[in-house]
Amino acid sequence: MRHFLTKLRVWLPPPLILVLFLIADAFTAIPRFTFGAVTIVISALLASVSLAMILHTAWQMRKKRTTLNPLHAEKSTTLVTGGCYAWSRNPIYLGMSGLQLAFSLYVGSLIGILAAPLFILVVARLHIDFEEEQLRKHFGPEWIRYEQRVRRWL
């Protein structure tokens, strides 16, 4: 089973999982589930905050010269704990889930809105569990203290 999950992680990197969910949202869109300008404003705000979180987190990782590749968490050179990482251990994935939810709202995909927790579950099982295991091995007590202090999502 572990070998299968490892292959699945490679075949389904987080950005691809997001794209697949967005495509499903588009196919299940029912415009009558939107509320005009209200939907547009809420979707735009959620997408803006989510994108800002993703970009800020990527910038933090670059600044600390550590890997952004979730398939190689063992190559991390620094445990980043500031900025968005001070309140979420997975701000990029949190931002991606926000983008998925914002798009679902925008296109009127009730199934997409209801599937937002499924997106979180898929990313958690395929990527986060593995990444956190690698970080625990790599950073030891430093990771354990961080993990106890900061929640996985919010």
Write down the Rg: 17 Å
Give the helix tally.
Answer: 6
Number of strands: 0
**What is the molecular shape?**
globular
* Estimated share of beta-strand residues: under 5%
State the separation between the terminal residues, measured CA to CA: 30 Å
Helical proportion, percent range:
55-70%
The low-pLDDT segments are none
H-E order: HHHHHH
Structure report:
By secondary structure, this protein is mostly helical. It contains 6 helices and no strands. It has helices at residues 2-11, 14-27, 37-63, 91-107, 110-139, 141-149. It is globular, with a radius of gyration of 17 Å. Its main location: membrane.
List the helices and strands and how they pair.
Layout: H1 2-11, H2 14-27, H3 37-63, H4 91-107, H5 110-139, H6 141-149
Transmembrane segments: 36-55, 103-128
Membrane topology: Multi-pass membrane protein
GO biological process, one term: methylation
